[in-house]
Amino acid sequence: MTSDLAGHDWVTPRARAPVRAVVRLPGSKSMTNRALVLAALSDGPVEITGPLVARDTALMAGALRALGCRITETPRSWRVEPASAVTGQHAVRPGQSGRPSITIDVGNAGTVLRFIPPVAALTSADVTFRGDARASERPIGPLLTALRSMGVTISDTGTGALPFVVRGRGAVAGGTATMDASASSQLVSGLLLAATRFGAGAEIRHAGPPVPSQPHIDMTVRMLRAAGVDVRADADGVTRRTWRVMPGAIHAAQIDVEPDLSNAVPFLAAALATGGEVTVAGWPADSLQPAVRIIELLQSMGADVRLAGDRLRVSGSGTIRGVGADLSEVGELTPVLTALAALASTPSEFTGIGHLRRHESDRLAALAGEIGKLGGDVTELADGLRVRPAPLHGGAAFDSHDDHRLVMAAAVLGLVTDGVLVRNAATVGKTFPEFSTCWTEIATPTARSAP
Which listed residue, of 87, 146, 324, 390, carries a Cα 20 to 30 Å from 295's Cα? Predict the structure, then answer.
């Protein structure tokens, strides 16, 4: 799925007046890809309403189709018909003999990298996983080790990274697995999503520093429970958590996907950056995403936030306050919040985000370097970033590092800085293909190119 940018580079629009807009957002990537996996493992067809259509979800759908699922897409929903492949009955294709061989392209999608191997283990096929160059640097080793402890055969030449082959045997024994998931919450979610299809279910024990992005594990648990899966979560101290998934069926006739609240944050940040007002329509009342934390962070930076029904309105005064904040639960917000902090009147310090060095890019180094090119003062810390106020200027290319969140951060800076040119901005199509069109509409409403 490509973005709506005509070329690879993009000069972000500067807002000549306070932004005033109402925006509607595409579906949540995190929810869409979890819904696709649940549907693939369900005991009958599943309708997914409001899914995100973007590169990451296209890669997930492609992976599940390769495993034998049938996915029919319409403008507002996807219908997923589970395949016998995930219950160990993968059919040998005409002309094949012996075990089927399947190749999965994970691109640079962490959810595909970490959610699909446990599903592949349920097949009777050799499933090879490959991806973009950056994907080989993203953490996957603890998940592979956990699957091996549950009886899965995996070939990875000892690297614990892409490429690797999951040699499915038609079933997974399950049982207890202990791993350090401090590099990514998706390592836990990947096992949780498939564990009810394992013979003995699974007990997943985390041992190590705190798991980041805990709300994403909570999202996984809530979606599983909504589909009838018995999931139990316990805490043991501050560095270990245990999740128990009982064996059984998944009943998920329909899954409704919320708007992507991470993608809302750049638009809400535009209100602060320009002293304007932005309303997000369709804000969920009881969100599976960290909606409360998003509101708290924006308020701490000076936003006036009003929630009326399903409409969240954020107003800015024209002054942004620096903050000290632990972003360990909402690391995805770091790039845009760092951009806002670069425009603030006082310093900021963000902590709990050391794991972002192994996301789509090394986000800490990328933010410090690219904002620095524009005159900003961003310093890497062992576990975060320090941002000091400094005058910004254009005239230097802002490299996206093939990271969609870096494009969004640059767009916020470009609202108040002339000539911010983003290299490889089309990478924003990973989670929001229409981002540049929507952004241009709110920044320069007279230049709208779409209704």
Answer: 390
Written as six digits, the tokens of 376 are 């900003």
Q: What is the pLDDT of residues 41-61, one digit of tens each?
A: 999 999 999 999 999 999 999
Residue 445: pLDDT band (50, 70, 90) is: confident
Which candidate in 258, 277, 329, 332 is catalytic? 332
Report the distance separating Cα 437 and Cα 270, nearest Å.
15
DSSP string, 245-312: E-S-----SEEEPPB-HHHHHHHHHHHHHHT-EEEEET--SS-SS-HHHHHHHHHHTT-EEEEETTEE
Which residues, listed in sequence order, are joined to residue 155 by a DSSP beta bridge? Answer: 165
Q: What is the pTM of this model?
A: 0.94
- Cα(77)–Cα(75) distance, rounded to whole angstroms? 6
Q: What is the DSSP letter of 214?
A: H
At 311 the pLDDT is 98
Q: Which residues contact 211 (CB under 8 A, 6 or more apart)?
A: 181, 182, 185, 188, 217, 241
**5 vs 25: CA distance, rounded Å:** 18
How large is the average pLDDT for residues 382-407? 96
Across 283-294, average pLDDT: 96
Q: What angle do helix axes 404-414 and 363-373 make, rounded to 10 degrees?
A: 30
141 half-sphere exposure, CB direction, 13 A CA radius: 12
Active site residue 332: yes
Long-range contacts of 369-373 (CB under 8 A, 24+ apart): 369/399, 370/398, 370/399, 370/401, 370/406, 370/410, 371/338, 371/339, 371/342, 371/409, 371/413, 373/397, 373/398
The C-alpha atoms of residue 69 and residue 86 are separated, in whole angstroms, by 9
How far apart (Å, rounded) are the C-alpha atoms in residues 183 and 166?
22
